[in-house]
Amino acid sequence: MSFKHKTENCRPLPTLENNKCFGCSPQNPSGLQMKFFADEKSLFSEVAIPKHLCGWDRLVHGGVIATILDEIMSWSAITILKRIILTKSMTIDFIKPIYVGHTVTVEGMVLERKNDREASMAGLLYNAEGTLCARSQGTFALFTPDAAIRMEIMSKDDVKEFECLFNA
C-alpha cells in the first residue's frame, strides 16, 4: 500500500518550527525533517533517507532506522494520547535491508495505554515496494504538560508550542 493511499484520509500535523530535533525539525539541515499525518489510531510519515546516513556501503545505518522508529512512536503517543512523552525502552527487529537514497514509509500506533504514566507503542517501517523492513516496540513514559514543566523535561514555551498538537 502506498504512502499516498495510507494518508488519503489523514490530517497533516502542524510543524513545530522552533525545535532543533534531528528527526522532525524543518530547521535542522542535517536531519530527517519528518512530517506527520494522522488518523484516529495511527501516524504516518514518508522519509527520503539521505546518502550521508549510510552504514555499510549503501545500507541505512541501524541507528538512523532506530531514530525513525522512535520518532514515529513518540509522535504517535503525543498525538493520540495527548501527552508529553519520553522513551523508556524500545526493541527493533531489522527484517530487510534499507538503502540510502530511497524513500520509506513509517507507521506508528498505540498498542496499549497501561495507565496514566505509561504506554506501549509500535512502529513499522516499509520500503517503497511496501515490504516490511523493520519493526519496533517501545515503552513510553507519559507526562501532563504541567508535570513536564515541573520536572524540567520541557520549558513552558516548548509545552505551549505542543498545544497545537494536543488540539489537532
Any chance you could write out the topology, listing elements then pairs?
Layout: H1 3-7, E1 11-12, E2 37-38, E3 42-48, H2 62-81, E4 84-94, E5 103-115, E6 118-126, E7 132-143, H3 145-150, H4 156-166
Antiparallel strand pairs: 1-2, 2-3, 3-5, 4-7, 5-6, 6-7
Approximately how much beta-strand content do the residues carry?
25-35%
Shape: globular
* Spatial sequence of strands, sheet with the most strands: 1-2-3-5-6-7-4
Count of separate structural domains? 1
Overall mean pLDDT stands at: 87
Structural class: alpha+beta
Instruction: Identify the CATH homologous superfamily.
Output: Hotdog Thioesterase
Number of helices: 4
CA radius of gyration is: 15 Å
Runs in which pLDDT lies below 50 for 5 or more consecutive residues are none
The biggest sheet amounts to:
7 strands, antiparallel
H/E order of the elements?
HEEEHEEEEHH
Distance linking N and C termini: 25 Å
- What's the CATH class label? Alpha Beta
Task: Please give the share of residues in helix.
Answer: 25-40%
Provide structural commentary.
Helices cover 25% and strands 33% of the residues. It is an alpha+beta fold. Strands 1-2-3-5-6-7-4 form a seven-stranded antiparallel sheet. Strand 2 and strand 3 form a beta hairpin. The longest helix has 20 residues. The mean pLDDT is 87.
